[in-house]
């Protein structure tokens, strides 16, 4: 009935702005930072992915929150922040 999820990166449409769980151990997040797509890998339960990635994520999130007046509020971003 259900297709098995492959461990490779799914299509851009699936990954755009949402988190996808490929296996029970690894989650991948994609987000836009200064016009470039970044893929963040993180094991479930880990709080830190790395200082560089964390900093990038923080900057991205803060910039996103500033723009919330112009852009529709996206609950997925909040979800992603909780996971990272």
Description:
- By secondary structure, the chain is α+β, with helices and mostly antiparallel strands.
- It has one domain.
- Helix content is about 35%, strand content about 25%.
- It contains three helices and three strands.
- The chain has helices at about 10-15, 50-65, 75-84; strands at about 20, 25-35, 35-45.
- Strands 1-2-3 form a three-stranded antiparallel beta sheet, with helices on one face.
- Strand 2 and strand 3 (about 35-45) form a beta hairpin.
- It is globular, with a radius of gyration of 13 Å.
- Mean pLDDT is about 55; it is low at about 10-25.
Features of the shown structure:
84 residues, alpha+beta, three-stranded antiparallel β-sheet, 3 helices, 3 strands, 35% helix, 23% strand, globular
What's the SSE blueprint?
Layout: H1 12-15, E1 19-21, E2 26-33, E3 36-43, H2 51-66, H3 75-83
Antiparallel strand pairs: 1-2, 2-3
How much of the sequence lies in strands comes to 15-25%
Task: Classify the secondary structure makeup into a structural class.
Answer: alpha+beta
Distance between the termini: 32 Å
Residues in helix, %? 25-40%
Broad shape: globular
Our Rg estimate from Cα atoms comes to 13 Å
Number of helices: 3
Poorly predicted spans: 10-26
Overall pLDDT score: 55
Number of domains: 1
How is the largest sheet built, in terms of strand order? 1-2-3
Largest sheet: 3 strands, antiparallel
Q: H/E order of the elements?
A: HEEEHH
DSSP strand tally: 3
